Amino acid sequence: MREKNKERVLALSGGVGGSKLAFGLSKMLPPDQLTILANTGDDFEHLGFTICPDIDSLLYSLSGINNSKLGWGQKGETWNFLSALERLGGETWFKLGDRDLATHIFRAAKLKEGLSLSEVTMLLADGMGASHRILPMTDQPVRTMIHCELGSLSFQNYFVKERCEPKVKNIKFEGIESAILNPAALDFIEQGLKAVIICPSNPFLSIDPILSLDGVVDAIKKQGCPVVAVSNIIGGAALKGPAAKLMSELGIAESALGVAKYYQERYPGLLTDFVLDQKDKHLENDIAMLDLSTSVTQTLMNSSERKKKLAADILNLVSKALSF
Ligand code: GDP
């Protein structure tokens, strides 16, 4: 039997919000102590490519080539491909930059050769110089479908093409029943965890797909380690994206309390700790009433320093929880 290494941290992440904290964690922990499990529900097929927005945000962020101005894509991006495509009358609603395109072409070619998404992600990470492991939540296709007033839309159609405007009725993850949790992630969990950190990602679109995979919640619970969720809602608003709008359409209070309640109701007994922003301090008692340890800190990560600081705060709180 392998010796259990209790220094290991598993982070669950979507794209924009998740990759900021993942970056911070990667500066605090060596590669063998951190694995990031990435949502693939936002993946989609476009122009012959399989596009994996959350994996790419993580790759770009952890390798330091992310475009912090745009909040997505690579820095120093140019758009020659897109304007040439426009001239041809091609579909340009999804913004593919020239540098970004290299990722998609590389991924498409390797998938065609028969490599799995995990294997291709590893190659991309090596090429970009991201040394911490980013694992797709599964190697099988899972596609988030948004059931809204326009009917059933694929996630990117809803998100980019329709700009999140249609009112959402419910969200389904097509393919989730037959998808298998990435075996490398299961192995990482079963080797012993110090903590699981649920990044401040969209709970419905980024975290639910990961936690909906068969066996993942039970495998995490079995570890009996701290499971810390960080609120993606600050002061009643999402920093980017449709999280707050979705909450109101799904009948959930648009607040850190709403996020905590949602996780507690959907995954009873999974979370141990909830991190909320200092702007939401007034909600701390109500969140604690949900049987959660609470921690209030600055969760806005608008600089590298703040990403590292939030990661350090969370790791401190995990160490404190473990020393009791
Ligand atoms: P996506 O997959 O690209 O949509 O990205 P995520 O699901 O990982 O992140 C989207 C969520 O991140 C939104 O709900 C934002 O409110 C949240 N978010 C973005 N930046 C920050 C930040 O600096 N701090 C916190 N607490 N949340 C953030």
CATH topology annotation? Rossmann fold
Question: In CATH terms, what is the architecture?
Answer: 3-Layer(aba) Sandwich
Could you tell me the mean pLDDT? 95
SS field, number of helical segments = 13
Given helix and strand content, the structural type is alpha/beta
Q: What's the helical proportion of residues? A: 40-55%
CATH class: Alpha Beta
Question: Beta-strand level of the residues, as a percent range?
Answer: 15-25%
Radius of gyration: 19 Å
Tell me how many strands there are. Answer: 14
| End-to-end C-alpha gap | 28 Å
Tally the structural domains. Answer: 1
CATH superfamily caption: CofD-like domains
The largest pleated sheet is described as: 7 strands, parallel
Oligomer: single chain
Instruction: State the strand order across the main sheet.
Output: 5-2-1-9-10-13-14
Spell the H/E element sequence: EHEEEHHHHEEEHEHEHHEEEHHEHEH
How does this structure look, described?
With 324 residues, this protein is α/β, with parallel strands linked by helices. It has one domain: Rossmann fold (3-Layer(aba) Sandwich). It is 41% helix and 18% strand. It is built from 13 helices and 14 strands. The strands form four sheets. The protein has a seven-stranded parallel beta sheet, sandwiched between helices. Helix 1 runs parallel beside helix 2 (53-62) and helix 1 packs across helix 13 (304-323). The longest helix has 20 residues, at 304-323. It is globular, with a radius of gyration of 19 Å. Residues 13-18, 20, 42, 54, 57, 200-202, 206, 230-232, 234, 238-241, 243, 299-301 line the site of guanosine-5'-diphosphate.
